[in-house]
Design brief:
By secondary structure, this protein is mainly alpha-helical. Helices cover 79% and strands 0% of the residues.
Length: 126
């Protein structure tokens, strides 16, 4: 069934737009991660983590339907780790755990590698 989805007309253009948007979203996610890490104010830490989580949710929701199943699962995993922190006992401490930063960094690196392996599709989106 997934192979049929990947052969739909116009899907290449949609995948190219997704990869182009992914480049922009990565910068935003990284910015939220850095802001959460550097802040000591509860609302800044949790707000930035929440915004990164929202972007990860968008990525995980569309990646799988475009044939990037592993990326979608990875985004969902990082999203869940953030949710667990925000709903956990330490959420009111105003700290960003280092393991979340490592998860976010690994996700960003993985996305960058994916974009680099599809340069022609990214050019098509421009």
């Amino acid at each position: 069934m997934i192979h049929q989805k990947l052969a739909l007309p116009g899907l290449d253009r949609t995948r190219a737009r997704f990869l182009e948007m992914l480049k922009d979203r990565l910068a935003t996610i990284a910015g939220h991660a850095i802001a959460a890490w550097e802040s000591h104010k509860l609302e800044d830490v949790n707000g930035n983590l929440g915004r990164a989580r929202g972007m990860l949710c968008q990525i995980s929701g569309s990646a799988g339907s475009l044939g990037f199943d592993d990326l979608g699962q990875h985004a969902e995993s990082v999203e869940k780790a953030i949710a667990d922190h925000l709903n956990g006992d330490d959420a009111d401490l105003g700290i960003c755990p280092a393991d979340l930063i490592f998860h976010l960094d690994h996700f960003v690196q993985r996305c960058q590698a994916l974009i680099e392996t599809h340069p022609q599709q990214v050019k098509q989106a421009c």
